[in-house]
Amino acid sequence: MSAPADQSVTTTYKVTGMTCGHCEGAVKQEISEIAGVSSVEAVAATGLVTVVSQAPLDEEAVRAAVDEAGYELVGRA
Q: From CA 76, how far away is CA 28, in angstroms rounded?
């Protein structure tokens, strides 16, 4: 089931291990490669990663992307 073209889904995840802007960039780059993702905002200070996508994402895909960047997905915030 796909969402209408004018709707998007925003999901916030908690990620551990990010400490700086480089960390944020690595997480953003990996998550951005998931199909359907339109934007990613990572904040090292809070450990929160906000993802805007065209449809709800598979959490395992997000977990794999965060893992690939070298950090750990705790779950949804």
A: 16
